[in-house]
Amino acid sequence: MVSEGGFDANYYVVLKSDPLFYNCHEYTIIKSLSNDGSYSGTALDGMKILNLACGPATEIPHFLEKGASLVVGLDVDANMVNNAKYYLSSIGSDSSKYSIYKADCFSIDSISQALPLDIYSDYFDAVADFWLICNASSITQLESGFKATNKFLKIGGIYSFVTVNPKEIQEFSKFQELMSVDWYTNLKRLFYDGEIAKIEYAFMDMKTRQEKFVFNATVWTLDDVKNALERCGFELVGAKGYETNPNFDFSNKSQQSRELMTGEYTPGFCFKARKIANAEN
Length: 281
Ligand SMILES: C[S@@+](CC[C@H](N)C(=O)[O-])C[C@H]1O[C@@H](n2cnc3c(N)ncnc32)[C@H](O)[C@@H]1O
Prior knowledge:
Layout: H1 9-15, H2 19-33, E1 48-52, H3 60-65, E2 70-75, H4 78-90, E3 98-102, H5 108-114, H6 117-120, E4 124-130, H7 139-152, E5 153-164, H8 167-170, H9 172-179, E6 185-193, E7 196-204, E8 211-219, H10 222-231, E9 234-241, H11 255-262, E10 268-275
Parallel strand pairs: 1-2, 1-4, 2-3, 4-5
Antiparallel strand pairs: 5-10, 6-7, 7-8, 9-10
The structure holds S-adenosylmethionine (SAM).
């Protein structure tokens, strides 16, 4: 059932059990957050991490495994929040090291209901999100999210996030062709809402190739993201496609999937920014 965040929470838990995800999404973002750019067992040693739009929280155990001392997950969808709590307790994660709350990550007021500002302003060493900003439907909303992130992050802290590859705008048909084989989404169409590019994705049942639900994602350009970050107290320090763990076993993946995970057409694209000033509200 698709609810507040535009996703089917139960389907998403199943999808995220595929090792493909932690070998590209988490692999990319952990390396980006780590002080030394590594994926070692201590890559995130002692870090307090805020995980925006955490969905079913399948990222959180990976952050903890790499040494994070605390991870707070936030999601706007109550079903995702319930699944996240269930998932983390079912795998025996140490409950003193994580918390999950429902919050709209584009709103400081909403986040501060879970994380009061007198304690949590400038509190986290790093902020991570996978597929939050593709839910923003205007530059104003994008900046409102970046300002909220800025509020809870320490000066000098890193904000890394994955969103739709900006190349999907210019090279839509190439991505469409690559994803049509055994990827978990199909690209249905590229369209414009005013000046904002959007892509309609169908999420697929990986066994039957039947559509499960459809999601419209905003595709931000590099300039949109860079300029908005700079207006919100960040400097952009990196922007690149997914890296995939070299140990990932591709033997049962198609050539197209391999290209999507390792080539220049990775559907996910990782931005890395550093907080250099408090954002003006
Ligand atoms: C593609 S899912 C990604 C979930 C998770 N980050 C992952 O990669 O497994 C996108 C998530 O964004 C959440 N979301 C959408 N809008 C949001 C908002 N305004 N604030 C917080 N979460 C939001 C959805 O509920 C959903 O869980």
